[in-house]
Design brief:
27% strand; 5-stranded mixed β-sheet; transferase; Aminopeptidase; alpha+beta
């Protein structure tokens, strides 16, 4: 049975393993950067199968106007079970109806997000990272 936890302390290595397994493109070999990603997020929902971290939804929000979900990663052997949708739902429940919710999708996930109730928008702008 999957257990969902809000702002549960997770190790950088457990986070790293979920990112690797999920296939999401993140700097998984830069441990200090991964740790900073965890440390500077203010809303993290996680999914656990016993002691194993199986999914992470990592967000930045002011809890008043907008929330940016920067990671939604589900371990490959737990995908297609509704865990990602549940993490989005739990995040949105925390925010309430007056907070806008947004995320950037990987090209491979563009068909997933409309299925879980998110709207595709065309009025966003982006400056890429210099890694």
């Amino acid at each position: 049975m999957i257990e969902y936890k809000r702002n549960e302390k997770i190790s950088v290595e457990a986070f790293r393993q979920v990112l690797i397994s999920s296939g999401i493109n993140r700097p998984v070999n830069d441990i200090p950067r991964l740790q900073a990603m965890l440390d500077n997020s203010n809303l993290i929902w996680t999914a656990w199968d016993g002691d194993r971290l199986v999914a992470v939804a990592r967000s930045l929000t002011d809890f008043s106007f907008v929330c940016y979900m920067s990671d939604l990663a589900v371990a490959s052997d737990y995908q297609k079970q509704g865990i990602g949708k549940k993490l989005i739902d739990k995040t949105k429940e925390d925010l309430g109806p007056t907070v806008a919710f947004l995320l950037l999708s990987a090209p491979s996930a563009m068909e997933y997000y409309p299925k879980v109730g998110l709207k595709n928008i065309s009025n966003a702008f982006f400056t890429p990272r210099k890694d």
